[in-house]
Each structure stands twice: as C-alpha cells, then as structure tokens.
Design goal:
mainly alpha; flat
Length: 139
C-alpha cells in the first residue's frame, strides 16, 4: 500500500511539474521582455547604435529557450525521491530482499558514471587544446 501511494504521489507531482513549467516559463519570459523594454526605453538612439544590444538580446533569448526547454525535466526530477521509494517498496514486496539489488545498483553506478564523465571531459579539454595548437601551427 505504501509503495502504491508513493508511486501515485510521484506521478501526480510529475504531472503537475509538466503542467506548471510552461506557465512558469511564460511568466519568466514576460518578465524578461518587460525588463528589456524598460532598459531599451531609457537608452538614446546614439547609444543604441553604438552598443551591440541585438547580440545581447539574442544571447538572452537563446539561453532562455534552453532553460524553457529543460524546465519540465528539472521539475519532474524533483519528485524522483518519491518514485524511488515507491519503486523500492514494490521491488522488496514483489521480489523479497533480492529486490534490494535493483535499488543498490543505481545508487552505486550513478556516482561512478559521474566520475567517469568528469574525467572524460577533462581529457577532451586537453585534446582540444592540442588540436587548437596544431591548427595554429598549420596556418
């Protein structure tokens, strides 16, 4: 019963996360547009021509589009502990104590995967530095 309730709670929270994230994103976008409009209204034409305001607006827009795209996944991941507890309870009830293996493996593998990803990122950064040096030598 506890596992089912935990699973139901996590699914309800996940549904609400996917429902409210576009609403929150739209409100944030409206706030951003208002701030940009207020700032641009106070700038003179001469200053506007000199500054590269269009590039700044373009960068903000592209960054905000990425945030808006990933927001539902972020909100849905906030309910992960509820789902994990529900899955753990169901595995233990259905499979007995060997079901704990299904819980322990992700807990052990996730930090290992994170560590390997960081080391791989450092290695790729070093490789890219050497590639850049090679390109500068050739040109």
């Amino acid at each position: 019963f506890c596992g089912g309730m935990s699973w139901l709670l996590s699914q309800m929270c996940r549904h609400n996360a996917f429902y409210y994230s576009p609403i929150i994103g739209a409100r944030l976008r409206a706030g951003l547009v208002y701030v940009l409009f207020a700032k641009l209204s106070n700038i003179s034409q001469f200053t506007l021509k000199i500054s590269e305001m269009s590039k700044v607006v373009n960068m903000l827009s592209s960054d905000f589009n990425i945030i808006e795209l990933k927001m539902p996944i972020f909100f849905a991941s906030l309910v992960f502990p509820f789902a994990f507890v529900g899955i753990a309870i169901i595995l233990i009830i259905r499979l007995g104590w060997p079901g704990v293996i299904g819980i322990v493996v992700p807990i052990v593998v996730f930090p290992l995967q994170t560590y390997i990803g960081k080391k791989n990122g450092q290695l790729l950064q070093k490789v890219n530095v050497h590639k850049d040096l090679r390109v500068k030598i050739c040109t």
